Amino acid sequence: MNDTKIAIFRKKEIRKTIYKNEWWFSVLDIIGVLTDSPQPKTYWAKMKERDKEMSQPFPFWEQLKMRANINTAFHPTSVGEAWYVYPDNQKKHYLGRPADAFSIMRGLGLGITNNDLNKIPKSDENFTGDYNLRKRLAGKILLQVQEHGEAWYIYPKDLKRYYMGRPSDAFELMRRLGLGITNSDLRKIDVGEVE
Question: Tens digits of per-residue pLDDT, 140-154?
Answer without folding.
Answer: 989 998 888 888 999
